[in-house]
Each structure stands twice: as structure tokens, then as C-alpha cells.
């Protein structure tokens, strides 16, 4: 086969870009507002400033509820069968042509597979660019007053699954309304309301770590003060699963998931 | 660049198109990365030379400066919040740190399964990290010098034509002893290399 010319590569890219930045096809049917009690596997309340981690089985859905509307929740994900595969926010935004990763979108791994789908989202704004809080961001925000931070929370959560600092990559922060202006300045455009939730459906067996600390760009100055509620539940995927079919990129990521799952011992 | 500029250079490398490179930059030294032919993305990672668990942190760097791109004056932060380097010169502008490195696997999702067997930056990173005892778990979001990825107010994000002209360069002064790992990006499925990967030049000098 003859190698395409630079002009042919450019035409292909422009076609992919036009398609990728068009609205996803079909209608996103989010998970129900009210979770059927029969499907609930576990419930938890994560206190302000604290972390939580758990193994999630493929098909389980984790709802994160911003009860007060004041919290932001930073999240890391790993393939439970092979922790060298983990959440990759760069691929997540690049592959899906958007920094605004919300309902219907995928959280992609570094291996071109979907770790989770955002099957419900009443929050709308989530951040993949500026990360979670760190000891340094806390000093900038709070001066000498000690508050817990997501960097240290992730270290603790990962350690309890046998992981080390090198297993901690960049994160996604839910309920973190960061937008860029034309010049690239990062702005906090607060749209959070009490009771907003996101649903993350595990697309392979996962380890998830979650940190309930204010985002570094949140202008608040009082530190963590808002609990978040978690509900782990079983919500069977619809026969026509929008998260899987809305875009060509989503279909290809799930093709990679299917091929991986067909291997012996894989999730 | 003129000769006097570079009188104190201690290393001078041409990195072929599509190739990896790694090297040490000592505290106080300056690394210049020259886009010799223009429009060439240079995927770059930094590690503390004495403790590789301390490494570049793209998200902490952006959160601290409140701005979505790496530019002149940007302090490059580590995952421990320390300043690893500061960008002290930039003749081009538009350096991304949110879109990461290309990989064979992500290429299949972005461009189609037929692109799996094309060389990619993560392959270069893995080859460059191996002699230093590191592997895939040590790879984090990198800086893409000369890669133009505007993030629009509506969230749209895409790689577009680079702004760099032949000979444009960036310079970073190391604030700690650094291991610098580079992939001279081989990607031809998007405009990050003008659809034609070309050699770059790396110069390390004592002054700056």
C-alpha cells in the first residue's frame, strides 16, 4: 500500500476533526434520577477532606452526589487486573476533541480503552486540566492553615491497594467548573448546585480512588467543609448504549475493550 | 542564534526525526530545544535526576499559573510542588501540556485501527526511560513544545497547525538536577509535525 501524502493525511485529519467536534449522534439517555433500591450494592458518605477507594466490578455504577453543591471530587482509576493501565486525562480530552468531559463521554486509559462511561451527569462541568489540590496549592490558598489535599489522599488510597507514588498520574475533578478564556486563562465559572450527581459506569474491573477536597482553582478559602454521598449500584446498560455508540471514537475504544476482554485473564 | 550566545554550551545534539533522547541537565544549566525546521512537536518529560519518583506534574503547573499553556516565565512544577525549571526564553509561543503523548493504542481510537502499527511518542518514551530503570507506570502527562492545542471557551480542544518557524527555540533553566526525556514526535495523522517529522536540536549550556 502506498504511503499517503502529507496532503492526504491533512484531509483525513480535517475530516476526523469536523466529525469529532460535531455534536455526538443520537440522544443521550442518562441514568434515572432515582436509583432503584433493589440495585444498590453499597452506600458511603465521604467526609470533607477525605478519600475513599474501592474495587468496582465491570457493569457497576458509582454515583457521586454533591449534596451541598460546594464540593469538588478528584478521581483516579486503574485497571484492577493490571494497574499499569490507568486513567489518562490527556487522551480523554484529545481523543474526544473536548476539554468538557461530561455526560455520555468516556474516561479513557492510556491503552486506548474505556475505563468508565459517564452515564449520568447533572453537574455538567468537570476538569481534566488543572488537577486536584496539592500541599502547594493549599499553601497558596490557605497560607499556614492545614487542610487535607487530594495529592496526599491519592497517595494514601493507592498505598492501600499496593500501589506507590509512581502509580499516581493526573486526575479528573468532578464538579470543578474550570473554563478557559480566549487567551487561555483558567476561570472558575461556578454552576454547582446542591444535589448534582455524576454516574460512572465501570467498563472493566477497576480500582477507583476518590478525594473530596476543594479544587485548587475554587476561590473558596475555608478549606474542605462539604461531605459527598456515594451510591454503588447495578444499572444494566440499555440495548442501544449511547455512551458506546455516540461517536466513532467511542465505538473504537469499546472495540478495544471487547478485544481485551476476549483475552484469557483480562477484565 | 549567534556564536556568543552558545559559547558556554556543554552539549549539542541533533535529534533525528521520530527519535527518542534523554540527558541530564544540572541545576543552573539551561536546556535549549530548537525546532530546527519548524512545526515539530517535541514531547518532553522531566524527572528529578536523583529521585525519579519526583517528576513533572502538568496539572499542578497549570493550576499554579492559572493558565492553560506553557509559556515564557512558566515555572515547571513537580508532583511534589517543587520548581523543576523555568522557561526563560520562547521565540514561538503555543506550547501544550494537556494533550499528552501519542501512543499506538490511542492512535487506534483517534485515527482508526489501521494506525496501530505506526511509531508513536510513547514508544520513544518507553525506550528512553528503560535505561533509567523506568517503565510505563512512570509516564505522566508531558509538555509538548511547539504543539499548538487551543482550548476554546466552549471546551473544544484540537491540535492545529504549529506556530513555530525554522530555528525557533525555547530555553528552560533547571532549578534542580534534571533527567530530561524527549520524543521527537513521529505523528503524521495530525498537524503537530506539519505532517512531516523533522530533526530538532538540543543544546545544554552552563549559563543562560
Model description:
The complex is a heterodimer of chains A (267) and B (208). Chain A is built from six helices and 13 strands. Chain A has one domain (47-261). Chain A has helices at 6-21, 89-95, 135-142, 150-159, 242-245, 248-261; strands spanning 40-46, 51-56, 60-66, 73-79, 82-86, 106-108, 114-121, 172-174, 178-180, 186-188, 196-202, 206-211, 228-234. Chain A is globular, with a radius of gyration of 19 Å. Chain B is globular and about 45 Å long. Chain B has helices at residues 58-65, 104-111, 121-129, and strands spanning 9-15, 20-25, 30-35, 42-48, 51-55, 75-77, 83-90, 143-145, 168-174, 178-184, 200-205. The mean pLDDT of chain B is 96. The chains are: A alpha+beta (267), B mainly beta (208).
Per-chain topology:
The complex is a heterodimer of chains A (about 270) and B (about 210).
Chain A: H1 6-21, E1 40-46, E2 51-56, E3 60-66, E4 73-79, E5 82-86, H2 89-95, E6 106-108, E7 114-121, H3 135-142, H4 150-159, E8 172-174, E9 178-180, E10 186-188, E11 196-202, E12 206-211, E13 228-234, H5 242-245, H6 248-261
Antiparallel strand pairs in A: 1-13, 2-12, 3-11, 3-13, 4-5, 4-8, 4-12, 6-7, 7-11, 9-10
Chain B: E1 9-15, E2 20-25, E3 30-35, E4 42-48, E5 51-55, H1 58-65, E6 75-77, E7 83-90, H2 104-111, H3 121-129, E8 143-145, E9 168-174, E10 178-184, E11 200-205
Antiparallel strand pairs in B: 1-11, 2-10, 3-9, 3-11, 4-5, 4-8, 4-10, 6-7, 7-9
Largest sheet of chain A: 6 strands, antiparallel
What's the mean pLDDT score of chain A?
A: 95
Shape assignment of chain A: globular
- Structural class determined from secondary elements of chain A: alpha+beta
| Assembly category | heterodimer
The interface involving the most residues is between:
A-B, 61 and 56 residues
Distance linking N and C termini of chain B: 13 Å
| Annotation field: number of helices of chain B | 3
Shape descriptor of chain B: globular
| Major sheet summary line of chain B | 6 strands, antiparallel
Helix share of residues of chain B? 10-25%
What integer value in Å does the Rg of chain A equal? 19 Å
* Helicity level of chain A: 10-25%
Number of domains of chain A: 1
Low-confidence stretches of chain B: none
Measured distance between first and last alpha carbons of chain A: 36 Å
Mean pLDDT of chain B: 96
Q: Kindly estimate the percentage of residues of chain B that lie in beta strands according to DSSP.
A: 25-35%
In terms of DSSP E residues, the strand content of chain A is 25-35%
| Rg value of chain B | 16 Å
Amino acid at each position: 500500500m502506498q504511503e499517503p501524502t502529507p496532503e492526504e493525511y491533512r484531509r483525513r485529519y480535517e475530516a476526523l476533526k469536523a466529525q469529532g467536534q460535531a455534536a455526538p449522534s443520537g440522544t443521550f439517555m442518562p441514568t434515572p434520577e432515582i436509583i432503584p433500591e433493589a440495585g444498590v450494592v453499597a452506600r458511603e458518605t465521604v467526609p470533607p477532606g477525605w478519600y475513599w477507594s474501592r474495587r468496582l466490578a465491570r457493569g457497576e455504577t458509582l454515583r457521586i452526589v454533591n449534596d451541598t453543591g460546594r464540593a469538588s471530587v478528584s478521581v483516579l482509576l486503574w485497571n484492577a487486573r493490571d494497574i499499569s493501565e490507568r486513567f489518562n486525562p490527556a487522551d480523554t480530552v484529545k481523543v474526544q476533541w473536548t476539554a468538557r468531559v461530561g455526560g455520555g463521554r468516556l474516561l479513557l486509559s492510556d491503552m486506548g480503552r474505556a475505563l468508565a462511561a459517564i452515564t449520568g451527569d447533572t453537574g455538567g462541568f468537570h476538569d481534566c486540566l488543572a488537577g486536584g489540590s496539592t500541599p502547594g496549592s493549599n499553601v497558596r490558598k490557605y497560607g499556614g492553615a492545614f487542610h487535607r489535599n487530594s495529592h496526599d489522599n491519592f497517595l494514601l488510597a493507592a498505598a492501600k491497594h499496593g500501589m506507590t507514588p509512581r502509580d499516581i498520574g493526573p486526575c479528573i475533578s468532578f464538579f470543578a467548573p474550570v473554563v478557559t478564556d480566549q487567551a487561555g486563562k483558567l476561570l472558575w465559572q461556578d454552576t454547582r448546585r446542591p444535589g448534582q450527581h455524576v454516574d460512572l459506569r465501570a467498563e472493566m474491573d477497576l480500582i477507583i480512588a476518590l478525594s473530596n477536597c476543594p479544587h485548587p482553582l475554587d476561590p473558596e478559602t475555608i478549606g474542605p467543609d462539604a461531605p459527598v454521598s456515594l451510591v454503588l449500584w447495578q444499572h444494566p446498560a440499555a440495548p442501544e448504549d449511547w455512551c458506546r455508540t455516540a461517536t466513532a471514537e467511542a465505538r473504537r475504544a469499546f472495540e478495544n475493550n471487547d478485544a481485551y476482554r476476549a483475552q484469557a485473564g483480562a477484565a | 542564534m549567534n556564536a556568543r550566545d552558545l559559547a558556554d554550551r556543554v552539549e549539542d545534539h541533533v535529534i533525528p526525526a521520530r527519535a527518542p533522547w534523554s540527558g541530564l541537565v544540572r541545576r543552573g544549566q539551561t536546556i535549549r530545544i530548537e525546532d530546527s525546521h519548524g512545526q515539530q512537536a517535541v514531547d518532553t518529560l522531566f524527572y528529578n535526576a536523583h529521585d525519579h519518583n519526583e517528576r513533572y506534574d502538568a496539572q499542578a503547573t497549570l493550576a499554579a499559573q492559572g493558565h492553560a499553556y506553557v509559556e515564557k516565565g512558566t515555572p515547571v512544577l513537580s508532583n511534589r510542588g517543587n520548581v523543576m525549571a523555568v522557561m526563560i526564553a520562547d521565540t514561538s509561543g503555543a506550547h501544550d501540556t494537556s494533550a499528552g503523548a501519542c501512543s499506538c493504542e490511542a492512535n487506534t481510537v483517534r485515527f482508526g485501527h489501521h494506525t496501530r502499527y505506526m511509531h508513536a511518542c510513547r514508544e520513544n518514551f518507553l525506550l528512553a526511560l528503560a535505561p533509567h530503570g523506568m517503565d510505563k507506570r512512570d509516564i505522566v502527562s508531558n509538555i509538548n513544545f511547539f504543539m499548538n492545542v487551543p482550548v476554546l471557551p466552549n471546551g473544544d480542544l484540537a491540535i492545529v497547525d504549529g506556530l513555530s518557524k525554522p530555528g525557533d527555540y525555547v530555553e528552560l533553566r533547571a532549578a534542580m538536577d534534571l533527567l530530561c526525556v524527549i520524543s521527537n514526535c513521529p505523528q503524521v495523522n495530525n498537524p503537530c509535525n506539519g505532517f512531516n517529522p523533522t530533526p530538532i536540536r538540543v543544546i545544554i549550556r552552563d549559563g543562560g
